[in-house]
């Protein structure tokens, strides 16, 4: 691995005791970029730097942030909403950024709000994250007291109010339009797009929704320039990224690495390999929604394009590792059960389909499967995600339904014999 | 109708918090979710009367507020025990043995998944991913996190809750005595925590400080 700057995690690594406090943030150069930018940059210059940085959104969809900002309708007021509803199974990177370096996020929020012309920003944090929310609230209050938030910030004439808002325990609110409905006091049901939030978002006003990690990168990008950011990492996927390693890996945790490593480097060198030196069976490369990879993909590069070509995605950056002892039907069932529980219920293919998939897998697990269940599973999958294509062809308002199909196509592609072995009468072979 | 009239049965600090929340958002209906947490704190859980109060305050209909309360899993419309034990059984925790943790906790508390103990001490629930996958298996008590919880330590945690009956549930304290592997270095030790089965967040009035 070539040397690279630790953009997101340097402060928390060097100063574990107080990286979340304003004094430490200022002592390590924090809010200097904001001061400089408010004095000497025009909003559109910041947008240009972020476009040049070519940073792909870190929430899951990997849409370039600068381009998203460029879609804003020329209407006021405008809003910035930070998506801290991190709920994709396997993902815990935003939690660390919120808890350990909240001022880095807040400086990014002010810079972004200035760039897009928003005077009101919301940080939406999932309800199950009270400690991260307390840290961010404490940081927001400290930033107000020091004049980094509020009226006439640092004498620039720019005003910004920031509010921390807690979710209520619904995965779907990580989908940006569901999040906006939730913030409006409604059920977290995704909206039909278009119109996109940049045109009609919060209270039907132009709104940018960006992930916590995405915005935490903005101070560095503005300080060092978009080109410097784009020079880190790989050709199509640039910068550093936080990956959350979990499951049967020796060293679970979040790691900040430049884009473009191989999966082998990420799982074996950085993750320390498989527990008890077991064999690797499979891994989920980008959160529960992502189709699984197996040993043959170890030398695939960890970039958006390389993973897409191999039939999966980097998603939310969650890498869930499964060793040889894993019952893949049980693992797939657990993931499908998640989507079944979290379906908002608006779209029939998702609401009914995820429920059926969960039930069929459950009876397979309980040795009550029928020989026809293999075809039935694939048929229900096809009803949610026609042709089982990657990326999926949409039958639903949001991608939750097709996400539930990923673990099933994964076990059918890579472990079909093992699945069949669980059905009495289909194969008189006990699963290993 | 004034805020004070609608929620005259709420404590004075929570009435003040409600007023602040209603004025903080560009549109007052956005205060619905925070107010539902405040209402849960006031009444122990979300009663039909409390939901009607939130509707009155936010300008939403009672049906809309009920639809919101029923959509999100953290709004409890039935009685909740003093300590809500949420055991993550999603994929990463599952791979690390979460089902055994849930079983040990059900056994220790005598409270099956999805129920509340008859003495009102515990509610036990399995939950979907709580973002603690690097410290799997993970458990929350009144939404305060403990990571790396082996089954027997999960049971010990519940025994400790029953016997010491802490007023404030503090994540760092529980992690120290009952936790194991963490998702990341937590940094400094804190003494703030939850005073009820509602997320402990200052503006929602649910945060307490552990006495030394």
Labels describing this entry:
heterodimer; A: 432 residues; alpha/beta; Rossmann fold; Ubiquitin-like (UB roll); de novo design (two linked rop proteins); 3 domains; four-stranded parallel β-sheet; four-stranded mixed β-sheet; 19 helices; 8 strands; globular; B: 212 residues; alpha+beta; Arc Repressor Mutant, subunit A; Glutaredoxin; 2 domains; five-stranded mixed β-sheet; two-stranded antiparallel ribbon; 9 helices; 7 strands
Structure commentary:
The complex is a heterodimer of chains A (432) and B (212). Chain A is an alpha/beta fold and 432 residues long. Chain A folds into three domains: 10-230, Rossmann fold, CATH 3.40.50; 240-323, Ubiquitin-like (UB roll); 328-420, de novo design (two linked rop proteins) (Up-down Bundle). Chain A is built from 19 helices and eight strands. Chain A has helices at 10-14, 22-27, 32-40, 43-53, 65-70, 93-100, 102-116, 130-145, 176-183, 212-216, 218-224, 226-230, 263-270, 304-309, 328-342, 348-365, 373-384, 400-414, 416-420; strands at 79-84, 120-125, 161-166, 207-211, 240-247, 253-258, 280-284, 318-323. In chain A, strands 3-2-1-4 form a four-stranded parallel beta sheet, with helices on both faces. A four-stranded mixed beta sheet of chain A has the order 6-5-8-7, with no helix packed on it. In chain A, helix 6 (93-100) packs parallel to helix 8 (130-145) and helix 15 runs antiparallel to helix 16. Chain A is globular, with a radius of gyration of 22 Å. The model of chain A has no long low-confidence stretch (mean pLDDT 96). Chain B is α+β, with helices and mostly antiparallel strands and 212 residues long. Chain B has two domains: 3-71, Orthogonal Bundle (Arc Repressor Mutant, subunit A); 83-205, Glutaredoxin (3-Layer(aba) Sandwich). In chain B, 42% of the residues lie in helices and 12% in strands. Chain B contains nine helices and seven strands. In chain B, helix 2 (12-24) runs antiparallel to helix 3 and helix 3 packs antiparallel against helix 4 (48-58). Chain B is elongated and about 55 Å long. Classes of the chains: A alpha/beta (432), B alpha+beta (212). At the A-B interface, helix 6, helix 8, strand 3, strand 5 and strand 8 of A face helix 3, helix 5 and helix 6 of B.
């Amino acid at each position: 691995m070539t040397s690279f700057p630790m953009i997101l995690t340097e402060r928390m690594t060097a100063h574990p005791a107080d990286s979340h406090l304003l004094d430490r943030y200022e002592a390590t150069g924090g809010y200097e970029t904001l001061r400089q930018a408010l004095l000497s940059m025009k909003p559109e210059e910041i947008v240009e730097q972020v476009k040049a940085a070519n940073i792909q959104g870190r929430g899951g969809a990997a849409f370039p942030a600068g381009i998203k900002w460029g879609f804003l309708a020329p209407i006021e007021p405008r809003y910035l909403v930070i998506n801290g509803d991190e709920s994709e199974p396997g993902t815990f990177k935003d939690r660390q950024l919120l808890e350990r370096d909240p001022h880095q996020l807040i400086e990014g929020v002010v810079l972004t709000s200035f760039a897009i012309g928003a005077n009101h920003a919301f940080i939406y944090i999932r309800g199950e994250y009270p400690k991260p929310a307390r840290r961010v609230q404490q940081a927001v209050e400290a930033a107000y007291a020091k004049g980094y938030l509020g009226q006439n910030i640092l004498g620039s004439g720019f005003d910004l109010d920031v509010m921390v808002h807690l979710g209520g325990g619904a995965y779907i609110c990580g989908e940006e339009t569901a999040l906006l409905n939730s913030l409006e006091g409604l059920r977290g049901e995704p909206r039909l797009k278009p119109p996109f939030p940049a045109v009609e978002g919060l209270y039907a006003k132009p709104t940018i929704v960006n992930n916590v990690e995405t915005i935490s990168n903005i101070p560095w990008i503005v300080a060092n320039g978009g080109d410097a950011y784009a020079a880190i990492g790989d050709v199509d996927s640039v910068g550093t990224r936080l990956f959350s390693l979990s499951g049967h890996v020796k060293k679970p945790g979040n790691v900040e690495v430049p884009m473009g490593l191989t999966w082998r480097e990420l799982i074996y060198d950085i993750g320390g390999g498989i527990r008890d030196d077991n064999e690797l069976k499979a891994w989920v490369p980008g959160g529960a929604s992502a189709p699984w990879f197996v040993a043959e993909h170890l030398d695939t590069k960890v970039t958006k394009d390389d993973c897409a070509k191999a039939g999966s995605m980097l998603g939310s950056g969650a890498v869930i590792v499964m060793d040889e002892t894993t019952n893949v039907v049980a693992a797939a069932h657990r993931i499908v059960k998640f989507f079944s529980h979290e379906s908002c219920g608006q779209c029939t293919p998702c609401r009914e389909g995820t429920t059926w998939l969960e039930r069929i897998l459950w009876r397979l697990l309980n040795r009550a499967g029928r020989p026809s269940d293999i075809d039935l599973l694939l048929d229900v999958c096809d009803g949610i995600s026609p042709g089982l294509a990657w990326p999926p062809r949409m039958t639903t308002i949001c991608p939750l339904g097709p996400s539930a199909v990923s673990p099933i196509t994964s076990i059918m592609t890579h472990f079909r014999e093992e699945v069949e072995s669980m059905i009495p009468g289909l194969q008189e072979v006990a699963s290993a | 109708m004034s805020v004070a009239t609608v929620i005259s049965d709420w404590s004075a600090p929570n009435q003040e918090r409600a007023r602040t929340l209603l004025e903080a958002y560009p549109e007052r209906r956005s205060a619905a979710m925070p107010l539902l947490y405040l209402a849960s704190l006031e009444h122990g859980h979300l009663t039909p009367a409390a939901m009607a109060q939130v509707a009155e305050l936010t300008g939403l209909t009672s049906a809309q507020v009920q639809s919101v309360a029923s959509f999100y899993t953290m709004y409890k419309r039935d009685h909740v025990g003093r300590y809500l034990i949420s055991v993550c059984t999603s994929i990463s925790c599952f791979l690390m043995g979460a089902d055994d943790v849930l079983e040990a906790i059900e056994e220790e508390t005598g409270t099956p998944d999805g129920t509340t103990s008859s003495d009102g001490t515990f509610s036990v629930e399995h939950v979907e991913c709580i973002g603690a996958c690097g410290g799997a298996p993970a458990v929350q008590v009144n939404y305060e996190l403990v990571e790396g919880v082996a089954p027997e330590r999960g049971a010990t945690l519940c025994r400790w809750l029953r016997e010491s009956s802490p007023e404030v549930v503090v994540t760092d304290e529980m992690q120290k005595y009952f936790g194991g592997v963490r998702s990341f270095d937590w940094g400094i030790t804190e003494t703030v925590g939850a005073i009820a089965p509602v997320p402990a967040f200052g503006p929602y009035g649910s945060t307490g400080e552990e006495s030394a």
